[in-house]
C-alpha cells in the first residue's frame, strides 16, 4: 500500500474514532446555555442573538431534516460531525507540517514514514479528546463548526504552501477567502487565520526573511483585516441601508475590477479583488437573517429586518463596547464587581455615574491594570483553560484550577469537588504528559522548520492569548469561556504529535549517532530507523497523551444520560396555569424553555418574558404587539411611541432612580392565615417607605404584626428588609 493511500486511511480512522467518541458521549436532547436558543432558531429558521449564525442555522436544519428522532439530539450530532471533520483536518495539518522538512520520496517504502503517520494520529487524537473541544462537540453550539472552518482554512494554507510553485496554486488562496466569508455566518474565529496565511505567503515567496519584510507583511495584513472586518460587519450594511442601488453599484464595481485584472493579467490586483469578492459571496448567508426577521418569527432578537438594523445587529450594539485601556470597567457598576476587581490594585476613578463609564485618565494605576491583565485575563481566562486541556483539572465547578498530581487539598475538595458530586471523577489529571510532549514538539518544529513553526506560533497566540486580551473579559464571568480557544488548542495538539515524532526519530535509530537531519530537514528519511523501536516509541506517546486524555476525560464528558435541561424546562412549563405569563432571567432560565415550546410544541399557551431582554425597546414592542405561538401579546399600558427606541437602546420608559415613596401591598386573608399559623384570618396590608439606594436595599415601615413579619421577611442581621 502506497504512502498517499495509507495517509487517507489514517485520516479516515481519526474521523471514525471522533464520531464514535462523540456519538457515545452525546447529550440526548437540548443542553443548557445557548444550545436551546440555537436549536430552536435552526428548527424554524428564526433570528437568535447578535451577531447571529445564519450559515450554521441553514446547514444544521438541512442536516436535521434527514434524521429521525429528537431534533435536539440531531442538532447535537451535527456539532459532533463538525468536530470529527475538524479532527481529521488536524491530522492532515500535522502530516503536512512534517512533510515540509521530511518530504515523501517514491523510492522509500510507506513503512519508512511510520513516524509521520504516528505523529499526525497522536496530534489529531489529542485534539479530539482535548477537554474544551470535547465539550463543544457534544452540544448544539456554533463553536464546533467555527473550529472546523478555522482548521479547514489552516489546512488549505498548508496545501497552498505545498503547491505554491505549481500552476493554479492560487485556487487555494481563493478557497481560503470563500471559507472565511462563510465563517462570518458562523463565528469570526476563522478570520484570525489571515495573519498566518500572509506570513506563509511571505515566507514562501521571499527566501530572505528581514525585519522590514515581516513588519510590512504584518502592517498590510492588519490593514486588510480591518477593512475586511469593518466592511462586512458594518460598512456594507450601512451603504445598502443608505442606498440599495449605490451598494449594488459598488459590488458590481468590485466584480468589474476582478474581471479587468484577470483579462489584463494583473495577478496581485486580481487575487485581491477576487478574494474580497469571494468573502462577500460567503457572507451573503446573512440574507437569511433579513428575510426571516421580516417574516416576524417567534424568536426575532433585535428584529434586524432592514439593512440599518442589520448593521446594528452585526455590530452587537445591544452589548455595548469597552475600551482597551484601562482593562477594568465593570467596577463602575459597584457592588460585587467592584469587590472582585479591586483585588488587583487601585481601581480607575470614574468621573461620575455616567452610563458610558468615563474614566479620569490621570487616576489610572498602570501597574494594577497590567496585574489584572496578566493574572486574570491571561492567567485565569486562558492559561488555566490551556492547563485543563493538556495537564488536568480539579473539577467542573466554575473557577476550578489545574491538577498536576491527581490529588486535591481539603479546600479544593470542600469548595470544588463535593458540591459537584463528582468525588469519583475529580480531579481529572493527565500528569502534564500531553503538555510536556507538546513542548518537545515546539522545540522539534522550530529546529526542523523555524519558518512554519513561527507561523503556527502566530496562529496559536492569535487564537489563544491575543483573543483573550481582545475580548477584555471582566471579573466575574457568568460561565467558563474555554470554548472560545479550541483552535489554539488544536495547534498545540499538532505540536503534541510533533513531539511524538521527535522522540520516535531520536530513539528509533538503528545505530547511535545517526544523522536525523538538520536545519533544512530530513531528506526523505535517510537516517536508518528501527521500525519496531519507532513504533514502540509512538505507541508509548499514544498512551501518555491521547489515550491518557480519553480515559481520564470520558466520565467528565459523557452526557449520554443528561436530560436535565429538558426536564427543567418541561417541569417549569407544566407548573404554569393556562395562558400564564412566565418571567425568566438569564440564558439557562430561558433557552431550554424556548426549545421545548418551539421544537417540541409543549405548552405554547404560556408567554415567556425574559427580564434581561425586557430592558430593550425591540423586545418590549414585540411583547406588546406580537403573539407567541398560542400565547397572546402581553397586556401593558405603555403606548408604542413610549416604547420606541429613541437611540442607543433607550426609550421613554427606561427606569430611573426616583425619590422616597410609600409602598403599600395588600395581603390576602389566606396568606395572613398561613403567615400567622391561623391566628389572623382577615386580609391585611403591608406598608413601608421605599428609599432607593445602592443595592436596592430599603427599610420597611409596616403595620403588620411581628409574627407576619417573621414569616414574610428575610433578615440580614441589620433589621433591613431584603427584596427577593
Q: Mean pLDDT score, rounded?
A: 86
Poorly predicted sequence stretches spanning 5 or more consecutive residues = 512-521, 695-724
Percent of sequence in beta strands: under 5%
Structural class: mainly alpha
Helical content, roughly? Answer: 55-70%
Tell me, what's the shape? globular
What is the terminal-to-terminal distance? 71 Å
Can you count the helices? 27
Instruction: Name the strands of the widest sheet in spatial order.
Output: 1-2
The tally of strands reads 6
What does the radius of gyration come to? 29 Å
Major pleated sheet: 2 strands, antiparallel
Sequence-ordered SSE layout with sheet pairings:
Layout: H1 3-24, H2 35-44, H3 54-65, H4 71-101, H5 114-128, H6 131-137, H7 143-163, H8 170-184, H9 194-205, H10 211-242, H11 244-263, H12 267-283, H13 287-294, H14 307-314, H15 335-341, H16 366-390, E1 392-393, H17 410-417, E2 428-429, H18 433-448, H19 450-471, H20 486-507, H21 531-557, H22 564-574, E3 581-584, H23 587-598, E4 607-610, H24 617-625, H25 640-643, E5 661-667, H26 669-675, E6 684-690, H27 706-712
How would you concisely characterize the structure shown here?
By secondary structure, the protein is mainly alpha-helical. It is 56% helix and 4% strand. It is globular, with a radius of gyration of 29 Å.
